[in-house]
Amino acid sequence: MKKVLKGVIFLFVIAIGGQLLFSGILSAAELDKIVQAGATLTVAESKRLIGKAVAQMPIVKNALENGMVIIIKGTTNRYVAEEITGQKIVPAEFATGRLMPKQAELLPKGKTINHVILEKGKVVDIPLPDAVKKLKPGDVVMKGANALDYKNRIAACNIMVGPHLGFVQGPDGGTTGMTMPSIVARKVHLIIPVGLEKQVAGDIVDLTLKMREPMESLNILPSMWLLTGEIVTELEAIKILTGATAFQANAGGVGGAEGGSWLVFRGTPDQVKKAMELTKSVKGEPPYTE
Fold first, then answer.
1. CATH code assigned at 184
2. What span, in angstroms and rounded, lies between the C-alpha atoms of 84 and 232?
3. CA within 13 Å, CB half, 198
4. 177 pLDDT higher than 90
5. Whole-angstrom Cα distance, residue 185 to residue 86?
């Protein structure tokens, strides 16, 4: 029995090694040279990391060269917009819905600015509804999320509609309602830049259905809209920019690390060193309110 078990394990190892070799991920000499390292990131540092990665995605580069890219306003998308355009954006001017203590004091209202819309790599000053009408296959829309079900690769965003909720996002579901029909119908790429701090407990489809139930609410409660697209968290960002794989080992902290993540990345020595340098490069990113 032991000989059979050893034989099965040997065959399994050979099979996995063969897949890695065939895929071109590792050479025979590299199979025994996988290393790992870790880094802690605050929420702001994670947002900067995600912004850098989204800017380097092949589908984004293609759309910047040949089509249209729409970056819908949001806290994470502010970093995406800065990395793509090279222009600094005042945080308050690019934030929409957000959770904050003492909101008026920490992030005062800024002037109203447009979503960032680019045609063939150049920023154009056109209203979002007009840009949506021009979308075609291969174009890219970037939309942030308020909730993330990472295991099932689904996200959701809050939909605030009507003056009875304190403010109006739009009569037809805000930017999500305005863009999603065209995204789906015209086969447009939807990229969802979202940090791991947005993960929620439970099945997000079930949570979304509960939020839509027509029952009396004693305070302001939005509905939620499911988002299915290409989710880019810190984990995907590490892979895109360095080739290393990553997983989240811990979460949370204090002294500014609330909502932060401890990431572990694995790969060849070169990949892991790149990941270490990359995470070091975003260290010190100030909180969104600064």
1. 3.40.50
2. 15
3. 29
4. no
5. 31
For residues 134 and 162, state if they share a domain. yes
Q: What is the pLDDT of residues 34-79, one digit of tens each?
A: 999 999 999 999 999 999 999 999 999 999 999 999 999 999 999 9
Is 50 exceeded by the pLDDT of residue 164? no
- Model pTM? 0.82
Q: How buried is residue 267: exposed, middle or buried, by Cβ count under 10 Å (0-12/13-18/19+)?
A: buried
Q: Among candidates 7, 41, 27, which has minimal Cα distance to 238?
A: 41
Q: Which of 151, 152, 161 is nearest to 212 (CA)?
A: 161
Find out whether 200 and 155 touch, Cβ atoms under 8 Å. no
Shared-domain flag, residues 16 and 40:
no
State how many domains the chain has.
2
| CB distance 142 to 96 below 8 Å | no
Lowest mean pLDDT among 18-32, 51-65, 152-166, 275-289: 18-32
The whole-angstrom separation of Cα 250 and Cα 262 is 5
Statement to judge: residues 96 and 171 lie in one domain: yes
> d(Cα 144, Cα 209) in Å, to the nearest integer?
20
Percent of the chain surpassing pLDDT 70? 78
Which domain does 19 fall in, by range? 1-32
DSSP character for 223?
E
Mean per-residue pLDDT, 146-172: 70
Secondary element (H or E) of residue 118: strand 116-119
Q: Which two tokens stand for residue 70?
A: 């729409």
Whether residues 124 and 12 share a domain: the answer is: no
111 and 44 part of one domain: yes
CB 263, CB 234: distance < 8 Å? yes
> For residues 169 and 100, is the Cβ–Cβ distance under 8 A?
no
Spatial distance between the Cα atoms of 243 and 42, rounded to a whole number of angstroms = 22
Beta strand 245-251 with 261-267 is antiparallel
